[in-house]
Structure formats: C-alpha cells, structure tokens
Prior knowledge:
The chain is an alpha/beta fold. The chain has 24 helices and 26 strands. Among the domains are: 145-292, Rossmann fold (3-Layer(aba) Sandwich); 429-652, Rossmann fold (3-Layer(aba) Sandwich), CATH 3.40.50.
Amino acid sequence: MTPQAGEKTAGNSSRRLFAFNGGFYTQRRLRRILSLAGYDIRLGRPKAEDLVAVWGQSPTAHRGKAIAAKTGACLLYVEDAFLRSLHPGRVAREAPLGLFLDTKAPHFDPSRPSDIETLLATHPLDDTALLNRARGAIERLREAHLTKYAGLDPTLPPPPPGYVLVIDQTRGDASVTASGADHARFREMLVMAQEEHPGCPVVIKTHPETTAGQRSGYFGPEDVNDRISVCTESLSPWVLFEGAVGVYTVSSQMGFEAIFAGHRPRIFGQPFYAGWGLTTDEFPVARRQRQLTRAQLFSAAMFLYPTWYDPCRDQLCTLEETINQFEAQTRAWREDRRGWNAHGMRLWKRKPLQKFFGSVKPLRFDRTAPDRPSMVWASKPGPEASVRVEDGFVRSRGLGAELVPPLSLVCDDLGIYYDPQQPSRLERLIAARENLRPDQTLRAEALVRRICKMGISKYNLDGDRFDLMPGHRILVPGQVEDDASILTGADTIRTNRALLLAARQANPNAVLIYKPHPDVEAGLRAGALPDAGDIADMVVRHADMATLLQDVDEVWTMTSLTGFEALLRGCRVVTFGAPFYAGWGLTDDLGTIPARRMARPTLAGLVHATLIDYPRYFDPVSNQPCPVETAIERLANGDIPHPGTFNRLLSKLQGQFASFQGMWR
C-alpha cells in the first residue's frame, strides 16, 4: 500500500547520528531501521549540525544528553513502536517491527510537547482515506488479537463479565515516572476503581515482564481479596476489554488500546493519548485541548508517527504491511508454541516442515507426545483429531513431485479443503467472509491484481506461450487422475478423457484447448492422455498457465485449482466435481455440491479466505513466517533456493510410484 502524506518512508539522504548507548551498535535491526530512515550512525564527537540518539529515558540517556548540550547537537529520542514483537525485548531479545523517532521528546514525557503530541494538536487529520485505513487497521488488530507483545493466547477464557479492569505496570517504568506517578498513585487508582463501581469485581492485569519475572509491578498477591483478583495469564487485551465495565490505568499502552475497544479509560498519569476527549483524566495536561475521534488518534499514533519495518523484505513499510507480517509471525507462534507430533511425512519433506512448524519447538516425527497436538499429511492415517496438512494454493516455483519445497501450507483441524465429503476449515472461512469490511475487500482485490500482473500460479513454471486459434476458447486442464480431490470430490466424471469429451459435447463449436497436468507431463503421476488431440483443437504442453488463462474465455474442470486461478482472471468456470471454490455462486456447477455451502461471498471474499486466512506462508530468504504478499513477490522474482541434482534424481525415482497417494501435489 502506498504511504500517505506524512507516513515515514526510506530517507533520501543520510544525516549523521551519534549514539552513546551500546545497543545502537549491537542491535542489528535497530541500526537497519535507522539507516533506512536516513540516519548514518557514527562513533565520535558530534558537531552542532548532527544528531545524538538517546533511548527514551533509559539509564544511559544522560550520556547523550550531556554530549548534545556540550556540542549543540540536537537529540533524537528513539523508542519501540506500539506493535513490537511476540515477547518483551527483556524476555526473548526479539527485534522490533518499528520505532518512534522523535525530535522533541519521548512520546511518554508530558513535560513538553513531543512530535506525536504536536501531530495530535496541529495535524488536520481530516483525510478520508487515512481515517478509513485507521478504522480498518483497528478492526484487524482486534480480529487478530495483536498488541505490543502478541505472544498471548486469545482462546484463554476471561473472568466472568462485569468486572473493572485495573492495569498494572512495571515498577519505575519511564512512562510512570514521567507522569509523576508512584506506588501511592497506583493505590489511589485501585481504591477509585472500587468506589466508582460498587459491587463489581476488580481484575488487576499484570504486565508481561512482571509475569515473566523480569521486573516487579505495583500490585501483587497481597492485593487479592474476595473482590480483587490478579490476572497473570497471557490473555488478549481485546478479550479482557469485552467483559470490562471500566478500565483504569496510569499510562499503560493498554489504555490506548482500550479506547479502540470502545472504552473511555480513566487515566491517573499523563500518557500521550490522554487529553484529547477520549479519556477521563485525573491529571489533565492543560495544553491539550483538542477533541479527536478514535480514528484521528489512531491515524496520528499508528500511521504518521512511527517508522515501520518489514523484516522479510528488509525495507520500511506501511502499518498495514507491518500488520500483515506481525499477524503471520503471531499465528505461527500461537499454533506452534506447544510443538507438534508429525505423522505420515516423507523423509524429504521433514526439513521444510521443520522450518514451517518447528521454530518454537522441533517437530517430533512418527512419535506421539501427549502434551503436543498431532498433524498428519493430507489423507494419510494418523491419530484421532490430527490437524491435516497440505500444500497451499500459491505453492512454489517448480513441481512438488520434483521435491521443490513449498512456500505455503494449509492446516485444517476439521477436514481438508479438497474433500467435500466432510466440512473443512476452509469452508468455514469462506462462509465467514460472505461480508467483508472495506479494508478486507481492498486487500483481497489488491492481491488479485498482483497475482494477475505478476503471472502467479500454483507452480510458477517457466512455460511456453502459444498462438491460440481464434474463436470462443475453452481451456480443459488435465489432472492427476488418482488425485485425492478427484477420488473424494468427483462423481460422474473422474478421468481426463471423460472431462474432455463432456466439454466437447457441450461446446461443439468452441475452440477446445487441453493442457496436461505438469506432474503428468513430467512422468511423475498418473493421467496421461496420448490421444487428446483427437478431441481437443489444441494440446498445449508445457504451457505457461498464467498467460494461458489470460487468453481463454472459460475453464471446464473436475476439481483443478486452475478453476480458482481462472476466477481470479475473470473467466467463466464450469466444474464437474466439488472443488473448494464451487458451490458459492461464483461457478457453474455440474457436479454434486454439498448442501452446506449456502453463503454467497464475492470473489474478494473467496480470495480472502483462500489465500489470506487459510494458508501459512514461509519466506525462504529470511526464514521467517510471512504474509501472502511476500510469498507472491518471492515467486515473481524467482528469489527462491531450488533443490539440487539429488532431489531431481529422487523425484524421478518417486515417479515410479506415481499411484501412491500423499505426494506433494
């Protein structure tokens, strides 16, 4: 997404930046973000035209301040942005996804206006597109349960609703001391919460660093009684806000988030978000008089003020791109944090699977540990309630049957997408996307445009281009005839010959184009049709699928993914089976469709569920989870490691067993 005016982008020229805190030199991500933002970090003595970096009000900040005072250099206050990492830096030493670079003061210091306060006080904040982006981003954070430290479990149940939420902070936190608060202020806040909500239970939420034992808070077990409880579990703030009748804080970021959950938090400090008409302030900042909407506050604090960074593409980016990346990282951690028992996985698959699912705890293959969930490959047998794993729909640059590792995999805890005989998680997701928010529609439509423009398909093979015969062109894609999607999802027509004959019978005057499946062409799977030219007008072997789809009018298929790719390019699609994309009102279905497919999503809704919600993606360059947009960029650029000679020889040997199920498709 193109940045709006005021959003941070890569600096065109470097300005010398001197730092007297070792972290500016030892933390690679910190140095990289500053460099991309236009700062050249130096050792030595600055001149008056230079900048001196200090980390907020850290214990070493006085060094930089003293040097700046002596030399006349200006200060640059650096802090983590509000979406940082899975865990606090002190707990896991994770690098941040963004920074605040403030030329006036730390954002949490109310003693003088910071850059963010100046934005909130003076910026028009009246751009409709920016405010709409803010509304969409708020909903995305809520939906994905993203917060500054997102290593939490959104499925944990909150206390019974009707409680007052009191937010603890780490003792001596810079935002607390900058507000002039202390232990007595926290005691006052706790008393006020009880007095203003008589009869309501009080829940004190501890800080993640306190829970991890890194720092102490202002509340503890000694505060618990028959009315007050302390919540140390890693609950989502968004879940806690839902059941709260009031939110009380000194200066926590959770107070900022509570505003977007619909609360008007009671503030006992002077954080940057207080004083704009969205909070009840016990100690107001007199100079803050402007009344803002939630979208305006969010726009300044999350779009215009921070500098966001994409760790996969190594570049500055927009908030939406940061959310895409953070959501991918968070999903991977939440799903993998307990580890996995993996069953039915061929030996060659284990290394890529380990990268995909083993970053938190290594996978255990063909063993069952009771404290871990189980996964099984596709339709292979496995323990009861196993999650089924299969290739995603934007897979690789090369065939799975040639042992090319995938960039995307799907995990289904209900069934599997190609088997219509039982519900799948993808079906649930498609039905849930019947109505999209504007931001979701924009993302899905932008994704479709990129896929079409970049010529992305499932395997992204470098194929041939054909001069097609003139007329009404119908593409009939061949399939692997023992493919599980045919065995489970096709009834009357289950072979390539039968499909081609049915298409010809229904369209005697059309230009019928038959494209054999790449695995079949490579001699790796079953489904060869040597006499296809007797039925079709053209047989296009080794054709570039993305180009081919741009030049045809219709696609007739049993269950091929080509039908889905054709929908993205505006083609009419006729199905004889029940592929995942059939039955939603977007295709002409001649097969038996499950009656449960009653929703009528738009194409954008189908795309959002199929390419954004359902698969997980892995970036082979940065070796990190990534969003679909990054995976597509890698496929388009060909910036992907390819298997060597041994894998190619092994794939040929594997072709001798083409009828076996469970290979990479």
